[in-house]
């Protein structure tokens, strides 16, 4: 009995102890449960967001790589679609590179068009020179320097070159090329060349003007015949000969051989034939004289 009583007392003491403790933290249970639920929902949301971001990033990079042979407009469309995403930033860089290349080539045939494309590339690269991606930032600044150099803005070009000459993501060969470029742009020769190049203003040749009557074919062909030179239709219903080729725009007809007039040479030959003497007549058979007869045969 004593052991059973002691056990009951211990249970009552534990229950009282737990009850006192629960009463002290009861007001904290509801906020704690809410915090746990919020954390769980946050974890689910973060997982879903990461999954969606990964899917969008994979889609963006897929479109970017499949568009590597595209033009500047197609890369601009990708850049506008994916914005600040890595694939979107590289798409904007590719669009700027295409515009810069096209602009430099256009400077030799149409300066106004070339300057417009280069300025467009500068605007696109300006949004990338502060990118958090190191390689993208460095390449964008180098391309900015090249764009300003092509326009003869040497001070800005030198400033951009010098800002990345010590970049850690440049190889030693690239770093040496940047230094050589800066050294050249500081020379008087470079200043004179770009000053002269800036005075050139090539324009595309004007397209030839096509007369109005050559812009479209005639409505219907015009065929004219000279009635004085048309052959007469034979009375016996014979078919006329086919016309010969046109001479001087007039249709010439070939008449049948029997109706064509004889030439002068043919007439002269026929006349000569009629004036030739007749062949000699064959002599008639006459009796041979006796004196001319063969001698008699000897007996």
How would you describe this protein?
This protein is an all-alpha fold. The protein starts with a helix and ends in a 25-residue tail after the last helix. The protein has helices at 2-66, 72-82, 86-106, 111-126, 134-150, 154-164, 172-185, 188-199, 264-274. It is flat, with a radius of gyration of 55 Å. The relative contact order is 0.04. It contains 9 helices and no strands.
**Can you give the mean pLDDT?**
74
Helix amount: 55-70%
- Give the strand content: under 5%
Low-confidence stretches: 288-299
Helix and strand succession? Answer: HHHHHHHHH
From the N-terminal CA to the C-terminal CA, the straight-line distance is 211 Å
The backbone outline, from C-alpha atoms, is flat
Biggest sheet overview: none
Query: What's the total count of β strands?
Result: 0
* Structural class designation: mainly alpha
User: How many helical stretches?
Assistant: 9
Q: What Rg is obtained from the alpha carbons, in whole angstroms?
A: 55 Å
